[in-house]
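Colleagues,

For the teaching module next term, I've prepared a clean inverse folding example: a structure given as tokens, and then the sequence designed for it. I'd like students to try predicting residues themselves before seeing the answer, so please don't circulate the second half yet.
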């Protein structure tokens, strides 16, 4: 039975869930096709009907607050540039060609609000910070906030940093390759291994080449931290180019999902995802639902999904911020990269992608086969972990056991995963800690804002 590796591992309930999942995806695919052929006035009609329905079943709306007005502007912004323009920032766009032929979009905030830069694309002489997003995201997640004081890239720019934001292959800003088009399964044949071997080091090399800096500071969120853990572990020379690695809501070997059926099903056979979604991008229909649903309804669906899958309540994120940010949350990613995560969860090890997906269920000996693991204990770059103590994807003791002894960690009380990006108090709880750590590893900055630097404190 090598073609059905999950056979014999699943219960009757699991098979029922599998059948229901296929039926739902078939229905959604049919709906997607129908919507593609619908004229825009019809789609707008569905949107208006969902708004009327929401207003009927919801309490009367309060008068527009300043945050709600800001949230509406963020919601309507179409891309990274428009999001930055809302707060007076001028961005640069760069393109990186990876060694295996993917074109990655990089965004840059080289100056403060009102500060003129006469030579775009050149060195500013400022210390350089590189931010990288998480799974199913793009660079917009860092700047889609209802208040500039809570947006880390804007604060860093005001502090005098040269701020760069990366994008993974396949997402909104990196959906091009010199070898394959995005409609080809070969385009989507990548996992976190490829991010580590190419996307992260090639992006860093481009940034250092443009800025003429010797080193930069790396700030990752979620999978953006995993990609850096992997890249630094397999590229020894990369450690000389990163002076500090700040991992926000770090991800390495999550324990699993809160939904027991999905967790058990995917851990039993991660490659089931290929049967559900094929070998292309995953959850590409998210943009369809977003186009026909009133934003508060779409936000409610996202909230319920996150609660079911991860047991996140998102109480630290305001409703206005959710409605604004969830519109910018999803971006394209490969099914293979998600399969990779379930392989990591199943084996409880931060390992490379397991190509032996069709191997027999029972192997001859315990030690006959093991996918290569990322040698994360070899990382030389200083590491600072900032995580929420209510984040179901972070098991800090397991993570620290796989990292070098110089790793420093700090817990945030009541914080979950997305709270670290969009929480209502990130300007008090998250950003000051990030600034303190950056100040430890960068030259004094020309800024009017005083930064306390009291050293790193290990929990």
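(Answer key — instructors only)
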């Amino acid at each position: 039975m090598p073609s059905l590796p999950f056979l014999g591992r699943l219960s009757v309930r699991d098979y029922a869930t599998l059948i229901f999942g296929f039926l739902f995806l078939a229905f959604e695919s049919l709906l997607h096709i129908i919507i593609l052929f619908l004229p825009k006035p019809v789609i707008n009609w569905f949107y208006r009907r969902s708004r009327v329905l929401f207003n009927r079943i919801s309490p009367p709306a309060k008068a527009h607050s300043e945050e709600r007005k800001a949230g509406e502007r963020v919601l309507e912004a179409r891309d990274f540039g428009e999001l930055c323009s809302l707060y007076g920032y001028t961005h640069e766009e760069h393109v990186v060609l990876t060694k295996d032929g993917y074109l990655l979009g990089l965004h840059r905030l080289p100056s403060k609000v009102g500060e003129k830069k006469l030579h775009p694309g050149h060195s500013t002489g400022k210390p350089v910070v590189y931010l990288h997003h998480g799974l199913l995201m793009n660079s917009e997640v860092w700047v889609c906030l209802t208040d500039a004081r809570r947006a880390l890239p804007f604060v860093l720019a005001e502090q005098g940093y040269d701020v760069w934001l990366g994008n993974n292959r396949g997402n909104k800003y990196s959906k091009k390759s010199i070898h394959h088009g995005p409609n080809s399964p070969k385009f989507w044949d990548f996992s976190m291994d490829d991010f580590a071997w190419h996307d992260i080091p090639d992006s860093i090399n481009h940034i250092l080449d443009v800025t003429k800096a010797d080193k930069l500071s790396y700030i990752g969120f979620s999978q953006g931290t995993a990609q850096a853990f992997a890249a630094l572990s397999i590229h020894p020379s990369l450690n000389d180019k990163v002076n500090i690695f700040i991992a926000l809501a770090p991800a390495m070997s999550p324990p699993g999902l809160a939904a027991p059926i999905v967790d058990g099903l995917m851990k039993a056979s991660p490659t089931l995802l290929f049967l559900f979604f094929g070998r292309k991008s995953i959850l590409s229909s998210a943009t369809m639902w977003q186009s026909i649903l009133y934003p508060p309804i779409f936000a409610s669906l996202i909230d319920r999904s996150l609660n079911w899958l991860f047991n996140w309540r998102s109480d630290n994120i305001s409703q206005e911020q959710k409605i604004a940010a969830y519109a910018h949350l999803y971006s394209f990613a490969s099914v293979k990269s998600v399969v990779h995560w379930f392989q990591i969860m199943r084996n409880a090890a931060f390992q490379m992608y397991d190509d032996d997906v069709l191997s027999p269920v029972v192997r001859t000996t315990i030690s006959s086969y093991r996918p290569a693991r990322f040698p994360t204990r070899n990382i030389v770059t200083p590491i600072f972990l900032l995580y929420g103590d209510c984040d179901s994807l972070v098991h800090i003791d397991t993570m620290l056991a796989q990292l070098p002894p110089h790793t420093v960690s700090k817990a945030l009380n009541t914080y979950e995963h997305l709270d670290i990006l969009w929480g209502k108090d990130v300007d008090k709880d998250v950003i000051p800690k990030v600034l303190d750590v950056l100040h430890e590893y960068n030259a004094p900055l020309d800024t009017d804002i005083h930064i306390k630097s009291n050293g790193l404190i290990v929990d």
